[in-house]
Design goal:
nine-stranded mixed β-sheet
Length: 948
């Protein structure tokens, strides 16, 4: 038996309660040992080194020395300092969190004396607040170097008491022979505080020593959570991040130290690629907070070859056992799957059936599809939609994505800058039908109403499991005035935003629960804000409220997920934000993307009342088109819905009702505010921001509030069915004029052309955006409107708010105006040569239009005469778009912007969206976890297992 035991006690500044209490507790436990230690050395680190109370406690102990060290001193470094005073035959390693049982040292010494080959004896670490819960009893590792606790977290029933030999153990509480400790050089300081006991055991075994367990030697840990890093992401925990960094650093360091000499360079070269692969895996596993520690550990090990070389020399110096002899003590792949199956989740569910079919959801969507087909029957034969804010899409997928890239814009003389994020949305949609991208808008128009019903129904599942309440939301959202107006007037941006909003609600309200919801919600938020930038203020306010509620009610759990919701949107919008702020045009950020579409609507009281009732125009539901003198009664059709929505805070769940009404107020306030903001112009006509998207948000919140009211009504009152039927019937009647607009010929949507330019230009321009058409249009006041269209058409994805939403003209506008004046006034000069040098290949003079004024006709005839007389223009002929000329002078292709800068910007934007998509992909574990949570958000459990 070893004659003398030297205890080394390290006190570091990482305890969660008063350190003096912990130190006093461990000293009392040492004093109570049946076999007292012979020598005690205490190391005080960081602020503890100057703490008078700690110094007093340490001084009153039987310690032969009290050593002070810096705050940054690691556990291994502190032990190295104490080891200089080492004496005796065995070393007992302790820290401030350990409380050994009175017989712990006796049993450890008994295990150590079992055989001369035993170098280390490890105790059974248990929780101080639950001695039946094992914290650690032996550690092993996989072939890849992953540390695996052999009994961590298990309930102690003596199931491991027969175990003896192990590969390593937790370093706390171990008893080590002094000669082995000195030969091994103590703990490896490059391990970053993790896996130190495992590494020490491996090195001892390679020297021929053994590591044995002493299951009857109990050491209680006052802070057992420090042994295992928590699952990061629920809340921001710097301690957890540091611990994860330490674990990964230790694993990578040991991998390089234990590898055969030939494999070390390969392992070192694989560190960065492995970090990339693991980052993707961590995203898929919904653990994005581990990516930072992963890269930190990788770079640390990558830049510390000296530490690896030092550790390898130490192993090589005294090695007497081959690695093959350690293989039986390693954990196999099968054992690892059994021990660390991350998908082991308690069976059971707190989530009922969805009842999409039995609850009427499928029938509502099918009915909405039938209504939509009847309303838009003629669209099925149209290849392209036109009219209103509709425009053709590019002919190829490559050109669609070219419009979404930063650089030279497809409209304007020399407009350079970032693309509108909406261009990427158009590119995604067009890519769904590569053979004919414009056909996607036809399908979108036909499916808009049923898809709205589907989205509304699923959004309602977050609020209630009542079939009638869900039906009200589905039917009401499919018949939303903002959607129907957008379909009739041709506003694709609003249609897309309207379809996405319920899914944004469906994911965002559950973002605090899972990364899957947060990831998908962040992607949808990108598309919503790209289609309707005017929603940004409302969504930012709601996002901040969600952060506050998560921090307050959830104590920070899920906060990182909620914060992530708008991170991709900020990254995607960053180039445009930078451009607008740099030019002093911040209000232009909320400009409607796409084709500028004047509305002619006022901002008077009648318009604002209509907004409050959910209608984007003062005309309301347009019943006046069907019934002369309809008066205000059509507005009353939405009153039942508003009354039910207003009753929610009184009769339903207070918290849920308050949040829903806050969403409604945010949407309504945004709608009322934006109708007075004019940031877009078309041919000199100012265009206010359209309130449709904000009204869709407002309408969705009203429906959600009404659903809460219906859900809260007592069953015995038998009011649910009559009220739900009243609301749905009233909304259906209100929607009749707009739904029948296309068959009656009052819709702005038409069978559009495949190009806004003549067919000759379309055929010539399909190869790319290298050449442009100089388009001249005579205005009613006698002026001439000039536009420059690059490529085969003025495409929907090629529209740019950099041109439509600007406060002043630029040098390109001045040059285009100068060229226009010269072209239409004199038949000679170098204007055409300058056009060719800039890349303009065609000149188009807009044709006659219905109601053309005398001034416009005079200007058009004079311009046509001047252009016909030019020798450097070849007449192509009259077309349906006007008269066309071809430039006969040399035409120089357009100079492209810096591909490097554009690629860098695109890489960052695409990268963050890909990260969000990876987070959104569900895993088996996330699906099973979600089934354990109620589908309804904000409901309280009541006795019997139900929700209220």
């Amino acid at each position: 038996m070893p004659a003398r035991v030297h205890a080394l006690l390290v006190v570091r500044p990482d305890a969660r309660v008063a350190t003096d209490i912990r130190l006093d507790r461990v000293l009392s436990a040492l004093a109570a040992q049946a076999r007292p230690v012979d020598t005690l050395t205490i190391v005080l680190c960081g602020p503890h080194a100057t703490d008078r109370e700690l110094q007093r406690i340490a001084g009153e102990s039987a310690a032969e020395a009290v050593i002070t060290a810096d705050r940054g001193t690691s556990f291994a470094e502190a032990l190295a300092l104490a080891s200089r005073r080492l004496g005796g035959d065995a070393v007992w390693v302790l820290d401030q969190d350990t409380t050994p049982a009175p017989d712990a040292l006796v049993r450890l010494m008994g295990a150590l004396e079992t055989a001369p080959s035993v170098a280390i004896a490890a105790p059974k670490l248990v929780r101080a607040d639950d001695n039946d819960r094992i914290v650690s009893l032996g550690v092993s590792m996989t072939r890849g170097g992953r540390a695996v606790g052999l009994a961590d977290g298990e309930h102690d029933q003596g199931q491991h008491d027969a175990s003896e030999d192990v590969l390593g153990s937790d370093v706390r509480g171990i008893l080590v022979r002094t000669d082995a400790w000195r030969a091994l050089g103590g703990l490896d300081t490059a391990l970053a505080g993790a896996d130190e006991g495992l590494d020490l055991g491996v090195r001892a075994r390679l020297r021929g020593g053994r590591v044995v367990l002493a299951p009857q030697a109990f050491v209680a840990l006052a802070d057992p959570d420090r042994t295992d890093p928590p699952v990061l992401g629920d809340r921001f925990e710097p301690v957890g991040v540091r611990r994860a960094y330490g674990r990964r650093t230790a694993q990578l360091h040991r991998r390089l130290v234990y590898a055969p000499p030939v494999a070390v360079p390969l392992h070192w070269l694989s560190l960065l690629p492995l970090a990339i692969v693991r980052s993707v895996v961590l995203l898929l596993g919904k653990r994005p907070s581990m990516i930072g520690p992963e890269w930190g550990a990788t770079l640390t090990v990558l830049l510390r070859p000296a530490a690896v070389a030092r550790a390898r020399r130490g192993i090589r110096a005294g090695r007497s056992v081959s690695w093959a002899q350690l293989a039986p003590l390693r954990v196999s792949r099968v054992e690892l799957r059994q021990r660390l199956d991350d998908d082991v989740i308690i069976d059971g569910t707190a989530r009922g059936e969805l009842h999409f079919f039995s609850g009427g959801g499928a029938w509502i969507v099918l009915g909405a599809l039938l209504v939509s087909v009847l309303a838009f029957l003629s669209l099925l034969a149209w290849p392209v939609l036109g009219g209103g804010g509709l425009a053709p899409l590019r002919a190829t997928v490559g050109q669609l994505w070219a419009d979404a890239a930063s650089g030279a814009r497809p409209l304007g003389w020399d407009t350079q800058g970032p693309a509108d994020p909406f261009s990427a949305v158009v590119a995604v949609l067009g890519s769904l039908w590569p053979a004919a991208p414009s056909r996607v808008l036809v399908v979108l128009w036909v499916l808009a109403i049923p898809l709205s019903a589907l989205g509304g129904w699923f959004a309602a599942t977050r609020l209630t499991d009542n079939a009638l309440a869900r039906a009200v939301v589905a039917v009401g959202y499919a018949l939303a005035p903002s959607l129907l107006d957008a379909l009739a007037s041709g506003r694709p941006t609003l249609v897309i935003a309207h379809l996405l909003l319920p899914w944004l609600l469906w994911t965002a309200v559950a973002a605090h629960r899972s990364w899957t919801a947060a990831g998908m919600g962040s992607v949808i938020a990108v598309a919503v804000l790209a289609s309707a930038p005017s929603l940004a203020p409302a969504l930012v306010v709601l996002w901040l409220v969600a952060i506050v509620l998560t921090a307050a009610l959830g104590r920070g759990r899920g906060l990182a997920r909620v914060v992530w919701l708008l991170v991709p949107s900020v990254i995607v919008w960053a180039p445009m934000i930078w451009r607008r702020l740099g030019s002093g045009e911040p209000w232009a950020l909320i400009a409607d993307p796409g084709v500028p579409l004047p509305s002619g609507e006022s901002t008077d009281l009648a318009r604002r009342v209509a907004l409050a009732l959910g209608f984007p125009t003062a005309g309301g539901s347009e019943w006046g088109q069907l019934v002369d003198g309809a008066g205000p009664w059509p507005f009353l059709l939405v009153v039942p819905l508003i009354v039910l929505a207003a009753a929610a805070p009184i009769v339903s769940r207070t918290a849920s009702s308050a949040v829903v009404l806050l969403i409604a107020l945010s949407g309504l306030a945004t709608a009322v505010a934006v109708i007075g903001i004019v940031v877009t112009s078309d041919a000199g006509t100012g265009i206010a921001v359209w309130p449709g998207a904000a009204l869709s948000l407002y309408w969705l919140a009203l429906l959600a509030s009404a659903a809460l009211t219906i859900d809260a009504l007592p069953t015995r009152a038998r009011l649910r069915a009559p009220l739900a039927a009243l609301v749905m019937t009233a909304l259906a009647v209100s929607a009749v004029p707009v739904i029948t607009a296309l068959p009656r010929g009052t819709s702005a949507v038409t069978n559009g052309p495949s190009s806004t330019l003549p067919a000759y230009v379309e055929a010539e321009g399909r190869s790319g955006l290298d050449n442009a058409t100089f388009v001249l249009t005579a205005a009613a006041d006698g002026s001439v409107v000039t536009d420059v269209v690059w490529g085969e058409t003025s495409a929907l994805g090629g529209q740019s708010t950099l041109r439509s939403a600007r406060s002043s003209t630029d040098a390109g506008d001045a040059e285009a105006a100068e060229l226009t004046a010269e072209l239409i006034s004199v038949p000679s000069g170098d204007a055409v040569a300058r056009l060719g040098a800039h890349g303009v290949a065609f000149v188009l003079l807009g044709g006659t239009a219905d109601g053309e004024s005398d001034a416009a006709r005079a200007v058009r005839i004079a311009a046509e005469t001047a252009l016909d007389q030019r020798q450097d223009l070849e007449i192509v002929g009259d077309t349906t778009k006007g008269k066309l000329w071809r430039v006969t002078a040399a035409v120089t292709d357009r100079v492209a912007a810096s591909a490097v800068d554009n690629a860098r910007t695109a890489a960052v934007q695409i990268g963050v969206v890909l990260i969000a998509l990876l987070l959104a992909l569900p895993t088996r574990r996330s699906l099973r976890l979600n089934r354990r949570r109620p589908r309804i958000i904000g409901a309280r459990r009541v006795p019997g297992g139900g929700l209220r």
